[in-house]
Write a structure and sequence with these properties.
It is a single chain. With 267 residues, the protein is an alpha/beta fold. It is 24% helix and 22% strand. It folds into two domains: 5-123, Cobalt-precorrin-4 Transmethylase, domain 1, CATH 3.40.1010; 128-263, Methyltransferase, Cobalt-precorrin-4 Transmethylase, Domain 2. A six-stranded mixed sheet has the order 1-6-2-5-3-4, sandwiched between helices. Strands 7-8-11-9-10-12 form a six-stranded mixed sheet, sandwiched between helices. Helix 2 (75-87) crosses helix 3 (106-115). The longest helix is centred in the N-terminal third of the chain and has 13 residues, at 75-87. The radius of gyration is 19 Å and the shape is elongated.
Length: 267
């Protein structure tokens, strides 16, 4: 049985592979097999480079990384590369960090392939929120504590249409676990917005950087200490977890709001 696949008569084929959070052994078997069969791999910053060692000799690697505040490949260029390589009859892998469908611009790339009548397949991966929760030793949901887990972005496109930006008032639920992707730079502002919507200043908060990697770091505090935590974690790929579920982490939330950091190598 194939995962979400769009068929066409084109000789080329594109497989979107979720690389997971960074540790090479967290990619799925299907994703690994796609890499081993690939002729061209388009990869980004968050897809572990050691995964590329699984590709066969002669594989063409194309770096198309995106990083906030740094020069990066334009989405239009990535779209063009996908179509161009597939039209050459190549087996193309678009390797994306985490899961392709979660804040990975997968939808835009799918639209381009559909318009070009190029076949594709989507192979899911471990998304950052789940990896961060595992790294911190917590569950994003827990009976009697958090019955809802919300995934949202903290970094929005400047070209987003008015009225389609994140509605923080709609996300401020005391009984929910809020997982914020790409939000470190704006965490101070996000914390203020949540506070204005009634989220308590002593609400537990975690910033998990480099989840699953040897340089993994977990910073624990509360909504009140969010700005200080964010300053320490700036310029690192991080996932922010806000809510009572974060209190399961072994760091103390004894009402001090203090900043603590725990770093350890993954096994």
């Amino acid at each position: 049985m194939s995962l979400v696949m769009f068929q066409s008569s084109s000789a080329g084929f594109v497989t979107f592979v979720g690389a997971g959070p960074g540790a090479a052994d967290l990619i799925t078997l299907r994703g690994l097999r796609a890499l081993q069969q690939a002729e061209v791999v388009l990869h980004d910053d968050l897809a572990g480079r050691d995964l590329l060692e699984n590709c066969r000799p002669g594989t063409e690697f194309v770096y198309v990384g995106k990083r906030s505040g740094c020069h990066s490949a334009a989405q239009e260029e990535i779209n063009w590369l996908l179509v161009a390589h597939a039209r050459r009859g190549k087996r193309v892998v678009r390797l994306k960090g985490g899961d392709p469908s979660v804040f990975g611009r997968l939808g835009e790339e799918i639209q381009v392939l559909r318009a070009a009548e190029i076949a594709y397949e989507i192979v899911p991966g471990v998304t950052a929120a789940c990896a961060a929760a595992a790294a911190a030793g917590i569950s994003l949901t827990q009976r009697g504590v958090a019955s809802t887990a919300i995934f949202t972005t903290g970094h929005e496109s400047e070209n987003k249409e008015r009225g389609r930006s994140v509605d923080w008032s709609a996300l401020a639920h005391p009984g929910a676990t809020l997982c914020v992707y790409m939000g470190t730079r704006r965490l101070g502002e996000i914390a203020q917005r949540l506070a204005r919507q009634g989220i308590a200043a002593d609400t537990p908060l975690l910033i998990v950087s480099y989840a699953s990697r040897p340089n993994q770091a977990i910073r624990a505090g509360t909504l009140a200490s969010a700005a200080a935590l964010a300053a320490e974690a700036e310029d690192t790929p991080s996932l922010i977890i806000i809510g009572e579920a974060a209190a399961q982490h072994r760091a103390s939330f004894a009402g001090t709001g203090s900043v603590r950091e725990i770093a350890h190598a993954s096994r």
